[in-house]
Amino acid sequence: MRPVFAAVICCTATILAGTALPLAAHADPVRLGVPDQEIVTPITGDPGLGDDVEASYVRLHYPSPYSTMAHPEACDWIGYVRYRSKQGPANSADADAVLTVQPGTYSSAANLDTQGPQVVRKAAEKGKHVEYISLVRRSTCAEDRTGWEAAQRANDYHVAADYYFHGAQIDGHTYQYKTPEDLNYLGEYGLSLTLDDWRAVIEHLLPDPAQRTKSFCGGHSLGGFLTGPMMAWNFTGDASNLDYAGFNLCGGGTIPEDGFAMTDPAGFSGTGVLDQVMSAAGGAIKNAVNFLVQNGLGVAQLPVISASEVMNTYYLAAMAADQRPDDESDLKNLVPRDLRTEPWMRAMYGKDYLDLFTGANLPDDFRLTNTAHLGMFFDQNSAEYVMQAGLGFYDCPVAGKTYPIPNGLASVPILGPTLFVIPLRVGYGQNYVPADHSQLCGWKNYDQVPPSSIDGPVLGHGPATDQDHEVTDIRQFAHAMNPGWQPVGYFEEYTPLRLITDTVFALGVGRDGDLAKLTYRNGGILNFLLHGDTWQSTPAGKRNLTLLSGDSPVQNAGLAGLLPYNAKYIPGYRHYDVVTAAEKQNNGMPELASSYIANFMIQGT
């Protein structure tokens, strides 16, 4: 942030109230797109900030050159949440270090609400002032926040339920379900746009290229995988202009969390003509895919499983748990069970395979408190696959699941130990539902479960969970996910599928057109076989801190040799925990992920 605007922000009430101010374009040797307005809005109401960290939502007006289709005016803005120490400098450029972080798939800036203040605070305790910048991707412009904001004002989540699920009007507005065709313009929101927006934010924060040795680039999940292309990107098309090489924009290094940085895992960059041929051949496929995503297949808004309606259901559960944590959940009366959400719920929460067809034993089929309902949606002993955090456990008798893998399978002789040689503990084999449909079930928070013992949690034996595997405070989790009190969301309801497909093509084959800017590649399998280069393709020449959740399936990439040798594994964490874990851990130790990040950022400063 430029000094003149830092002064304005500190001293002028208008911008603190959200008034837009013009920005002067800085004189770069190569003129890339730059924001021309800034709006700063303070964020309050987060206990995690304490009295030493402040947060603000910064919006930058920046119509992207990669966005050419007709779109809402709101999509000409990008944004981020800025966490800083109150004792630190007002100007980002004067901080000791700045970390910009990309959220994961279907995630947005509030997903990082818990980690941001912790990183800032831990650096300040060591006498250093760092900033944590949680990025908001451009596609959030399509979201309708009317109901959440009204429900927050009324302190009643039912207001939001009526608006999003029952057609109620608020201030003359009615929620409109968006079809893929309504969102065709998001089919342009691919890797090039996302990385260019990231560049624009870094330049805005640190306009002098000489300052970017203290610029760090990180991400969680999908965001972690984006750090590789970001480091390898050549923004100007001139490979000799290193000020605009991604690895210099992120001059301090990369911090992927439960993801990892890659630039060329197959190693085509060392194959000469073959690389060009494969890029052209893959480019033809990529062009066909891009045609589809710009014509009705750009987002997961399908007649069966609609991402926005699933995310709205999660939002409603979080708001209910935040506002009325101990009340009995009435979500089953508020959210319709239809094709937009039901298949997703069956695939994520069924007790057995029969439930995939009958729809029985889903969260709506039990009597739960609002907190327990949210826990059933996201706790690692309930939810399947990767949408998990160690939030605690049910406060009622439970029954084990047999879907997708039966509890206790690991205890079967020969078969069990063989299956679990690979660390696939992503909820499989230790999942539960309440045993009694008629008994109201509450929730034990992460610090209320039994301490660890020599017996468990062992699949098929011992307690269902223990304090070593429960690390995230469900009260803080609910508050961060509640979309009413803050100007950014926890979820990205309309994640552009092109961001995912572009990333796959860029890291595989299809690096033509705008993806040809993935210039600074290194390593990879073919490079290893042909030239003796490294097998892994982590960006070379810059520091890297790869953080992996100890009970997440992402760590299995290590079996293919793709992970940096110095990757850090955090025991007991699941996929979300690496960014949501509570500052106060059950073992009495500081939270590890934020500690690693703070220490990594301040080394050498």
Short description:
By secondary structure, the protein is α/β, with parallel strands linked by helices. It is 30% helix and 12% strand. It contains 20 helices and 16 strands.
Explain the overall architecture:
This protein has 605 residues and is α/β, with parallel strands linked by helices. It has 20 helices and 16 strands. It has helices at 3-11, 13-16, 115-125, 146-154, 157-166, 191-205, 222-232, 246-249, 273-293, 307-323, 331-334, 342-349, 355-358, 370-378, 415-419, 474-481, 497-507, 525-531, 577-580, 592-602; strands at 21-22, 37-43, 53-61, 77-85, 97-102, 130-136, 169-170, 173-174, 215-220, 253-257, 392-395, 398-400, 432-434, 442-445, 547-549, 568-570. The chain has an eight-stranded mixed β-sheet with strand order 1-2-3-4-6-5-9-10, sandwiched between helices. The chain has a two-stranded antiparallel ribbon with strand order 7-8. A hairpin with a 2-residue loop joins strand 7 and strand 8. Helix 7 crosses helix 17 (497-507), helix 10 (307-323) packs across helix 14 (370-378) and helix 10 packs across helix 16. The two termini are 20 Å apart. 53% of the residues are buried.
Radius of gyration: 24 Å
Strand content: 5-15%
Helical element count? Answer: 20
Low-confidence stretches: 1-19, 24-30
Strand segment tally: 16
Q: Tell me about the largest β-sheet.
A: 8 strands, mixed
Compute the average pLDDT.
Answer: 89
In angstroms, what separates the terminal alpha carbons? Answer: 20 Å
The helix content, as a percent range, equals: 25-40%
* Estimated structural class: alpha/beta
Shape: globular
Q: Looking across the biggest beta sheet, what order are the strands in?
A: 1-2-3-4-6-5-9-10
